[in-house]
Design a protein that fits this description.
homodimer, alpha/beta, 4-stranded parallel sheet, elongated, DNA-binding
Chain lengths: ~350, ~350
DNA sequence: TTGTAAGCGTTATCAA
DNA sequence: TTGATAACGCTTACAA
């Protein structure tokens, strides 16, 4: 491996170098290389481009940022990048961003609101063009007020704030049809003949969780069924949380359950694993449904019934709002559609 | 949503503002806020910190970067962030980076070498502290020479280059025991009674692919078995590639196969899906093994036999090499261990 | 220990 | 259209 002593470390080629090599002023070089309203004489432009190529010049983005006072960085804040839901969303945002020449940088909170606040602050210092909060958000949390203040400052200095699927903060939000999707799911399940449900929710104050539970309940109600509060289990919002939750469940509670609805697929999969270690077969002994339709599901047997969230569309919508600088079509909600699979067969 | 006209856009608070508010010079403020060799009088320091807090000051990282000539950004270049292998690696690198106060930014190539080259160039312009290439790498590709030149320039300007599991370029590499892992896997499979294999590889020039195939073959040879070249199927290095590959396979080829070894789990899962649509049961009709032990596997039934790559360790090793500025312990190779599961039961 | 002043690599203003 | 020259926000000799 070429071990390089500080001595032979090469000074990076700067715009000044290019200008000198091309025999023009720095300003002309700048105008020729990095777009600007002004036009540059073709001949000079050629010379500058030539010199830049020859010297392998590449612009110092930080210096540009300082001079311009803005960047094209979009910070995507997620809870956990190893989670299939977030990594797919990241992929879709990145893809969409390309068209607008925006740089996306993904950053992880590990579900820590303090960390979220810190990050927003940091990105204010970086003059990020936008910050996208894709995590879940806690209703009524003490820190939420602090986060809100930080976001306001971020906006005040010219940045854009976009939230995904969380209604706990007064900023532009790309809404998913959480409650509608859950409602249609429970209706469909009722039509399949299911009557006795158990719901697996994330921590109680999680916004997305609440919406999905509420929608599920409403769908049941419309079918003349019920989801009593004691049939909603709150646990950590993760595979592990759900896994542990079903393990510690009373036998009679489980015995009285025909179908377990988890507020997202990760939890549904954790629940399935937990149920199986209890000796239950899916779906013969108990049915399971989730939410999100993460990519992982293509490999799950039996196929998991879920509600599909078109993350590709989420990415496009997020980026569109940032790029246009306008609050997207008012009230545009990303649709969510029920996908029935083998984990919830028709009941006789 | 608060629509903010450019008019009431607030000028960001700068170090100068803080210094003025604290009644000290800019340099003192700088020294007090952002570490420096020099010590600042406690009283003054307190005043500066106070002022900074009061004004919600946060440093402009770009300006710091310009002034210092370096950053603490590590660019992690992966093929696809929605791929479980890469997203787990990203998570592990990020976690490890925290301890050294390095900022990780993940960026995606979509398996395009051109793009990889562009990115390295861009990160040279950003004075990134390091660039980590975690994608696979093509042996002998024409563009590899170009990529190499770009990486050399990156290093020449003071950046560090770290490769993960690719031996096609002469830079510091965190090596996985690809061939050893595959060798032990095939030995174990031979011991279980398997005799007739089919290997599913990525595109022929992919380095990791070749190493794994070679190791697998060697393990068989040591057990007195063979993997003839015509039993190695090359396809796109992805779920879809493997899925398509097994679909188009001749019936007699498949009939003569007891076990399919895919060079990574994604492909193994794609193969399983493809085999199933052909009406084959896993493992009753045909056994399958993969490589990587991605997180997804915890939900796969039957459990997939694979070779575990400890990504957590990879992340630590990558970051350690960047942070220490030294080429890690010479020849340190990340171990890879066989994990036998139900997809490859003992054969009678 | 503090402050002054000169950079860092760009962009933007304003004459020429 | 081009080129001096002054920003941009920060760090860091160098002097005090």
């Amino acid at each position: 491996m070429p071990q390089r002593s500080p001595a032979d470390r090469v000074r990076p080629v700067t715009l000044t170098d290019v200008a000198r090599a091309a025999g023009v002023s720095q300003s002309t070089a700048s105008r020729a290389l990095n777009g600007s309203a002004r036009r540059v004489d073709d001949e000079l432009k050629r010379r500058v481009l030539d010199a830049a190529n020859r010297l392998h010049y590449t612009a110092n983005v930080q210096a540009q940022a300082v001079a311009r006072g803005t960047t094209s960085t979009v910070a995507l804040v997620v809870s956990d990048i190893a989670d299939a839901y977030f990594s797919s969303m990241a992929a879709s945002v990145m893809r969409a961003a390309e068209a607008y020449d925006l740089r996306v940088t993904v950053v992880v909170t590990e579900r820590d609101v303090e960390r979220e606040i810190e990050l927003v602050r940091e990105y204010r210092g970086q003059h990020a063009r936008a910050v996208v909060l894709a995590g879940s958000g806690y209703r009524h949390s003490a820190e939420t007020a602090e986060l809100r203040r930080e976001l306001e400052m971020f906006e005040a200095t010219g940045g854009r704030v976009v939230l995904v699927s969380r209604s706990d903060l007064p900023f532009e939000t790309v809404d998913l049809d959480n409650s509608g999707g859950a409602r249609r799911l429970s209706s469909a399940l009722a039509r399949l003949g299911y009557r006795r449900f158990l719901a697996l929710a994330g921590e109680e104050q999680l916004v997305a969780t609440q919406d999905r539970i509420a929608g599920f309940r409403q769908g049941l109600r419309e079918s003349g069924l019920e989801l009593p509060e004691e049939r909603v289990l709150y646990s950590e919002f993760s595979w592990e949380g759900a896994h542990a939750a079903v393990q510690t469940l009373d036998d009679d509670v489980l015995g009285a359950t025909e179908l377990v609805f988890a507020v997202n697929d990760e939890m549904a999969l954790g629940a399935i694993a937990g149920l199986r270690t209890r000796g239950l077969r899916i779906p013969e002994d108990i049915a399971v449904a989730g939410f999100d339709d993460i990519r992982t599901l293509r490999d799950i047997v039996p196929g998991l019934t879920t509600v599909r969230v078109p993350l590709e569309e989420v990415g496009r919508e997020v980026v569109a709002r940032i790029a246009t600088g306008e609050p997207g079509a008012e009230g545009r909600v990303i649709p969510a559609s029920v996908v029935l699979r083998e984990s919830t067969p028709r009941r006789n």
